[in-house]
Design goal:
CATH architecture of the largest domain: Sandwich
CATH topology of the largest domain: Immunoglobulin-like
Oligomer: single chain
Order of helices and strands: HHEEEEEEEEEEH
Largest sheet: 5 strands, mixed
Number of helices: 3
Helix content: 40-55%
Strand order of the largest sheet: 3-2-1-5-8
Number of strands: 10
Shape: elongated
Number of domains: 2
Strand content: 25-35%
């Protein structure tokens, strides 16, 4: 912000100087060329160079974490209108141990590899305190790696307009200690297995099935 303010002040000062100056006729053409070169080429070039020098390091900090796939916990996140489906570990739909809704559970100080997709329209996954936003497109899987350094609750939103209830398209990331996450995953897996078994028993009780 300070850089843009400085550029604005500099451009304004040059404009005021150009309006108030009264150059001699012999030097008018030469000074006009100098202003064109300085204001039209040099100043924009320097501004762009400074922006690049500032933005490239910031972009590298916001990019995905350079970790090997074997070291990262895999979680699949599917956006629906208007809720979130989270599968663990999620790298493969057939390899899901547990599922949660609207809450992403993950351990602290562990790289997490998110597989992001959508079941209907384009959504965008964004947890401001953990990573930049990334679009979720039907029929396509985008990958995002995040890592939380300490336990806590991090709030996320859908950053792409997705319909009438877009404002309610929110979720939370619950970051646990490694031990607490392992316990949560085991409990969720047991609960999901019990629910699946109950549904299977109910189907067996239906006449004609």
């Amino acid at each position: 912000m300070a850089f843009f303010t400085l550029v604005l002040i500099l451009v304004s000062a040059l404009w005021i100087y150009a309006m108030r100056r009264q150059p001699e006729r012999d030097n008018a053409g030469r000074q006009e060329k100098a202003w064109i070169i300085g204001g039209g080429i040099i100043l924009p070039s320097v501004s762009i160079l400074v922006l690049l020098l500032v933005s490239i390091p910031v972009g590298n900090l916001m990019s995905t974490l350079p970790t090997a796939a074997d070291d990262a916990l895999q979680i699949r996140v599917t956006a629906h209108q208007w809720w979130w489906q989270i599968d663990y570990p999620g790298g493969d739909a057939e390899n899901t141990l547990a599922t949660s809704q609207n809450i992403v559970h993950m351990p602290a100080d562990v790289p997490v590899h998110l597989y992001l997709t959508s079941a209907d329209v384009i959504h965008s996954f964004w947890v401001p305190r953990l990573a930049g936003k990334l679009d979720m497109i039907p029929g396509r899987i985008n990958e995002l790696q995040i890592q939380a350094d300490e336990p806590g609750i991090y709030r996320g939103v859908c950053a792409e307009f997705c319909g009438l209830a877009h404002a309610s398209m929110r979720f939370e990331v619950h970051v646990h200690s490694r031990e607490d996450f392992a316990r949560w995953l085991a409990d969720a897996q047991r609960q999901q297995s019990g629910n699946a078994q109950s549904r299977a028993e109910d189907m067996e009780d239906i006449p004609g099935e």
